[in-house]
Amino acid sequence: MKVFAIWDKERENKTPIGYLLYYEKESAFIIELSSELDEWDSPLLFSFFVKKGIFTIPKDISALWVRERVIPSGRQNIGSILKNHKMTEYNEMKLLALSKGECSQDSCYIKEITYDEIPEEIRTRSEDNVEECFVSGKHDIICLFKNDMVMRVDLRKVAMENGKIDSVLKNERVLNTVEVGVGGYSITFNDSIEVDKRILIEKGTEIKISAQDFYSFVNKNIVDTEEACEMLQCSKQNLTYLIKTGKIETIRQESRENMFYKGNIEKIKWG
After folding, report:
1. What DSSP element (H or E) covers 80?
2. What are the strands, taking DSSP E only, across 9-82?
C-alpha cells in the first residue's frame, strides 16, 4: 500500500487535510480526512460527508477525487502522453504522482509518506474495519470486525439506504458473492455493489460472541479429509463411500478438498 498526505496550499496551519491510501493490487483508493476539517475547509467533493461528521471517504468517492486530477484514459492523444512519460499502460496512480495531485479546481496537492507518519487518531479508525463476512439465512450477513466485534446485519434494513441491495436480496447467487471490500472498509457483492462499514455498524445488531470465538471454532472444529480418515481410522476410499451414501456430509461439496465438521465425524465414530 502507498500512502500520500493531502495538503492544501491555502490552509494557514501546516498540517495535511487528509491522507490518500492506495491499494496497489486492487488499484483502489481510500481517503481519510482530518477530523479538524469542517464543511467549508474541505474540498467540495467531500463537504457532504464532513457535514455529517464522516471523515473516512468511501472508495468510489475517493476514486472520483483522484480522477479529477489525472488525464482521462479517453483523451485523444493519451498514447503519446503515456509514451512521453515512459508508461506502457494507463495507470491512474502513476499519473496522479506525476501531477503531484494538483488540480485547477482547488489548491490541494499530495506528497508520499510512510504509513507510520499518519497521525494515530486516523490510524485507529481502521480498528473497526471488517475482517470476515458470510451469509446467514436469506437476508443476513454476519460481519467479524478487527476490534473483535461481531454483528448480524439485516440487508433489508441496508436496502432502505442503498437501493442496489434490493437486487442482492432478489438473487441468491449474488448474495453469496459477499466478500470483504478493499482494506476492510466495506463489504461487496459481485465485486460491484458496496456497503460501507459505517452502514454495517449502524444497521447491524451486535452478537454477544467475539470474532476470536469464530476463529477458534474454525481452527478446532473443521477438519480436512486426512484428519477425518485419521479420526475414523479408515481409508480415503471408505470416507468417499460414507459421503456418497449420505452417512456424512461435507461442508462445501463443490470444493476440491472436502472439509467436515468435527462433530459430524465424531458421530460416525460413535456409530
Report:
1. helix 78-84
2. 18-23, 28-33, 56-57
What percent helix, strand, coil does the chain show, rounded to 5?
40, 25, 40
Q: Whole-model pTM?
A: 0.80
31 CB burial (10 A radius; 0-12, 13-18, 19+):
buried
Query: In which residue ranges of the chain is CATH 1.10.1660.10 found?
Result: 221-270
pLDDT digits (tens, 9 = 90+) for 207-232: 988 888 888 888 888 888 999 999 89
Q: Which three cell numbers stand for residue 235?
A: 481409508
List where CATH 3.30.2020.10 sits in the chain.
Answer: 129-209
In contact, 55 and 32? CB cutoff 8 Å: yes
Neighbours of 52 (CB within 10 A): 10
Which amino acid is located at 193 in the chain? I
Sign of the C-alpha dihedral computed for residues 253, 257, 262 and 265 taken in this order: positive
**Mean pLDDT calculated for residue range 20-36:** 93
CA–CA separation, 84 and 224 (whole Å): 54
Question: Helix 225-232 crosses helix 236-244 at what angle (to 10 degrees)?
Answer: 100
No. of helices (H) and no. of strands (E), the chain? 13, 14
Q: How far apart are CA 240 and CA 253, in angstroms?
A: 12
Question: Domain 129-209: which CATH class?
Answer: alpha beta
Is the pLDDT assigned to residue 206 strictly greater than 80? yes
Name which of 118, 13, 138 is nearest 56 in CA terms: 118
Residue 146 φ/ψ region, left for φ over 0, alpha for ψ in the -120 to 50 degree band, beta for the rest: alpha
